[in-house]
Structures are given as structure tokens and as C-alpha cells.
Amino acid sequence: MPGRDQADVPPPRQSAATDYVLTAAGREEAEHARLEHLQELFDPQSQRRLARVQPGWRCLDVGAGRGSIALWLSRRVGTSGEVVATDIDISGLKHLGAARCEVLTHNILSDPLAPLRPGSFDLIFARLVLVHLPGQQEPAVRRMIECLRPGGWLLIEDIDMTTLSSTDPRHPLSADFDRILQAMRDGYRARQLLDITCGRALGAVLRRSGLFNVEQEVSAKIHAGASPMARWHAQSMRAIVDNLVKRGVPEDARRAAIAASALLVKALEDPDFSFLDQLHHAAWGQRAVSD
Length: 291
Prior knowledge:
Blueprint (H helix, E strand, L loop, with lengths): L27 H22 L8 E5 L5 H10 L4 E6 L13 E5 L15 E7 L9 H11 E13 L4 E2 L7 H18 L10 H7 L3 E8 L2 E3 L3 H17 L6 H18 L5 E3 L2 E8 L5
Parallel strand pairs: 1-2, 1-4, 2-3, 4-5
Antiparallel strand pairs: 5-10, 6-9, 7-10, 8-9
Helix pairs in contact: 1-6, 4-7, 6-7
């Protein structure tokens, strides 16, 4: 395991992520709504995978968003357990204090680990975090593992965006939908804004990082336009384009991005449109009792 951060280094008051394409700055209300929608869609599967959590456990939710999993964990561990929820932006987590959850502004990749008490967690959970750390997933995973107690579990959920595509070539928006999505994926790769295939490597990353009992599962569905999943994708695409056009791009590029986003959203809001979703991956593993 990598060496621990020195305990006398205080955590920064604010963790910044200037390349985060879903930053809430200037659009806080819309981002909170998007995260709450995400929770409704993803929490049932996450809770099923977290069923191993026992009363008295100490748990960490990395990138906790609006805090629904942290709240669920707090009920699971009971009064004898502890839950810590972290994010680079904790504006959506202020309500967790009433649920006995500790909330920390923290970037798992770059902030000191001392405030988390390395070696103390029975379980660490991270959902849709690694996709935002292109080329840096393994260092982030190793830092999470350092925070586990011997025998503790790490559960990571993330995505593979390459499968997101229309399923009915006869729909009038199908070809443009696929063309624009491919251009967006190419842009994410070129600018290293997102790792669009990180989900598929989760199990391999956990094994390379020294975890045992590693397992991985994947799921995908075909959804109709105007479905809950379609609405979440539309919210996310609006957010990404809103943030990207604020970064000083040329006017022609700004207009093109807005027009492309509008077409994607139009398809996603059409009940006659259908799409194959991105692959949803989950991998989990256990830290050795003695390293």
C-alpha cells in the first residue's frame, strides 16, 4: 500500500476540480435536481450490492452527491456505526448532519487522507467517480484502499459510455443522435475530460491494487425516450454543454455545441425514440487481513 499522508498536514478548506464537466457552480439548483434523479435511478442496485454492511461498521461514501447512499448506510450501521460522506462540493450534503453522518470537503485523489483516518473503514463506496479521473483511476483506488481496515471492502460503480446509442435506425433522429454522441465521446477522450470506458476495467484495477475476492458485474437496458433514464441523460447533457461553453470556447463552437445538445435532448424527450444505455459496471473486493 502507498505511504500514508502525514497527519499534521491540514486538509484544504475547498477542493477544486477545474476539469469537472458537471460542476454545480452557477447552476446549483439544476445540479441538485440531476443528482436527486440519479439517486432514484441508481440507488436500488447500489443498495443491493451494499447488503453486506453490518451494524457497527464504519463506512465511507466517496463523491456522495446528494447523500442518499450515506443516509441509507447510516440506517444500516445504526447508532454503533459511523458514516463519512465526502465530495469536492458538499453543498448537497448539508442535511446529513441530522443523520449522524460526518461530511467532509475532500478530493480522494489529491487531498490528505489523514482526516479520513486511514485503515479505519469497513466499507468504502464510490459511484460515478472514476469516470471523472481519466488516467488517474488507479491512484484514486489505491488511496481508497489505504483507508480500508484489513478485511474491509471496496465497492465501485461506474460506466462504459461506448454503448449509448439509438436502437431504431428508422427514427428520424437516430443517425444524428449517434453521430453527435460519437463526436462528444471523441472530444472527451481528446481533452481528457472523461474516461468513457473506465467501468469495464474496474475489476482489473482492484486486483492490480492488491484486493482479494474481486468480482465484477455489468448491466444495460434499452430505454424509451421520456423515460426516467432518458430524462437523466438529458439533464446530464445539458449540464455538460452548459459548463463546456463557459470555458472560453469560440463562438462558432459554442453555437454548435448548443445545437447538438438540443438535438440529443429532443430525441431523449421523444417517447417514440429508443436507445441502448451505457453499460453500468460494479466491482468489489476485499483488503487482505495482513498486507
